[in-house]
UPF0178 protein BJB45_13345
Amino acid sequence: MPTLWVDADACPRVARDIIVRAAERTAIQTWFVANHQIPLPPSKWVKGLAVSHGFDAADNEIVLRIETGDLLITADLPLALEAIDKGAMVMTNRGEALTANNIRARVQMRDFMETMRASGEHTGGPKGYSDADRREFANALDRWLARHGRKKI
């Protein structure tokens, strides 16, 4: 049975709520990992893991624990690359699949944009989390759970 891992430091609350409901509905073990305590409902299936406040501490903990076949939900591209290299599946909190076929190009683009920002170029930040993002994420998570998770209870 796969485990769901959530890079919870930057996960929007609305996506967190979708994940919690899906985990309860499908009885899939789900871990929210962050460098602070994440408010979560009492649950047999949903747990929080607060790690030290060091740089990338939550990412390192996820990489240490994630296994082949697990699903990671993150927008952190370097973390996604490490998880994919370990055989995990990765989805953004907007429902986009990150795979071995697209992750390296995405990391390279991220690094390029970071270089541009460091040189003073204004590149803008991520767009806000919209209702369309919420729907796409919920649908993508449901599709993944239908293929890889337990049957609905």
The chain has one domain: 4-148. The helical segments are 13-26, 57-65, 77-85, 103-118, 131-148.
